[in-house]
Amino acid sequence: MTYDWPMSNYRQRMGAWGEQAAADYLARQGYAILERNVRTPHGELDIVARKDDLLVFAEVKARSSHSFAYPEDAVTPRKQEHMLMAAEHYLDLNPGGPDTWQFDVISVERGPDREPVITHFENVIG
Questions:
Q1: pLDDT in tens, 42-77
Q2: Whole domain around residue 58: which residue ranges?
Q3: Cα(71)–Cα(63) distance, integer angstroms
Q4: What is the C-alpha to C-alpha distance for residues 74 and 43, in angstroms, rounded to an integer?
Q5: What local confidence, expressed as pLDDT, does residue 126 receive?
Q6: Contact (Cβ atoms closer than 8 angstroms) between residue 109 and residue 71
Q7: 67 in a domain, yes or no?
Q8: What is the number of structural domains in the chain?
Q9: What CATH number has the domain bearing residue 42?
Q10: pTM attached to this predicted model
Q11: Residue 108 in 3-state DSSP?
Q12: Confidence at residue 13, expressed as pLDDT on a 0 to 100 scale
């Protein structure tokens, strides 16, 4: 398979595709998408969503396949620590939201028909 754009551009496009697929999926599941790509000093929050009285920080991992590894495998303990610090920063700057919040990971793979194959892991950091 060949691509006519640089690898870094390919990764950006794949990431944007995955984040859009994840946001569309969450919306279909009844989540309200509050923000996307929130930058903090501790890293980026891919999607901040709300469903009823639950605030969800969703980390999106997109891959064209899982030949090398599954997308969710990229959420290492170090990445989880950064996610937690980023969420705490977000909550400090946005008081008054739901008291209950959690981290989800949304794995997005490109299926054989180029449609996204989505796996939603809920409440991944205990």
A1: 999 999 999 999 999 999 988 776 666 665 677 788
A2: 7-121
A3: 6
A4: 15
A5: 67
A6: yes
A7: yes
A8: 1
A9: 3.40.1350.10
A10: 0.85
A11: strand
A12: 84
